[in-house]
Amino acid sequence: MQQSVGIVQEPTTDIRVAGKFRSICRQAFRRLHGLPIQDEVEPLDAQIAGQLFALTRRHGVFNLLQTELATADKQATAMAYAYVRHAARFTREAERLYTLMAPQARSLALLKGPALARQAWPEPGLRSYDDLDFLCDPQDGLKLGKVLMGEGYAPEVEDSLRRFHLWHFGWGISFHHPDGFIVELKHRLFPPHYPWPMRNNSSWRDQFTWQKLDEVEARAPTPALHLLYGCLHGIWHGWERLAWLLDIAGLLVRHPDALEEARELAGNSHMATLALAGGCKMANNFLGMDFACLAQPFVSSLLLAQSEHLLFSSESSVRGQDLRRYHELWMNPREKQRYQIRRILTPGDGDFRWWALPPAMHGVYWLLRPVRFVWQQIVGS
To answer: According to the model, what pLDDT value does residue 200 have?
Structure first.
């Protein structure tokens, strides 16, 4: 059984507020998906209204819960309209960029965002997202980056040499637009040291479909791939947002066959299999669902409790060593060892800042990284 590692010291959300938040989320989700309402939530207590609204914004569920939190507050109504408008703007931008980039790419897919909203939510405008994620072929990164820059996007890393090495050794690059749009251009679903997807399991590459947005059809993950990816993505970020659980639950409700298909995509990856089960069971427990198909595999109640605890642990996310230790709780010994070794050995931004090499010599970084590590130990001592 997995053991607690003390990632979270004290919950910062009042227990009474957290309980109310859970009840309202459960009721709103079931009403949205046309499921029977179990128990009507009692009227909102004005004393906890402020904390409750803060939680809805933090977790990206303000619009979903706003209909349940009856209030005459004009500010709340205006905010709800702003969220819907925000989602519409991002959808239009996703369509525009996809139309521009797809003809120049070997392959291009829209991850999460507007595509997932249409797969997992009966009313896509209720889903909140802050960026647009595009998955492309590794060889298309430079070309598509230029397309984005031609459209007014500025790369988060300005130095082109560093940007090349980050793309080659990492998994993606961020671009920011003056109008508030953020684009994540990726050639991997996760960093190279993450246990899934593995090199010997490429079945996920065929799990893409055409998804209609508003006016444009974009290539996007199937519901099964989105389900597996969503569970692993939640763990990767330490369950920062409840909205990710609503995505998972929505996929389970709207696409009953997705879970079994996602299990096949997990392959023989222990972490992916456990993450899929854990993410689905968290959504099941939090929203009061009853999916009989979630009986296997076993996930310890301690790990599930700690994962749910992260939702209300702090206003800021778990970071650094604590987050890595949380990742390792989902791995078997072999995956944990590979994760640690690969993370240590893979060249990173510190190496690129330490010594700027031309692209043709990028392989030298595999040798320079241990040298830099030894040098830091000497200087540090």
So the answer is: 60
Residue 342 forms part of a structural domain: no
Any domain includes 354: no
Give the mean model confidence (pLDDT) for residues 16-43. Answer: 80
Q: What is the mean pLDDT of the chain?
A: 86
Q: Which one has a higher pLDDT value, 290 or 333?
A: 333
Which pLDDT does position 224 carry in this prediction? 97
d(CA 225, CA 261): 8
Residue 262 belongs to domain spanning: 15-137+187-335
Alpha helices in the chain (DSSP H): 15-32, 46-58, 62-66, 74-101, 113-120, 141-150, 160-169, 223-236, 243-254, 258-266, 270-287, 301-311, 320-328, 333-345, 349-354, 365-380
Count, residues in the chain: 381
pTM over 0.85, yes/no: yes
For residue 4, is it within any domain?
no
Question: Residue 230: CB partners within 8 Å, gap ≥ 6?
Answer: 112, 116, 244, 247, 248, 251, 279
Number of domains in the chain: 1
pLDDT of 235 higher than 90: yes
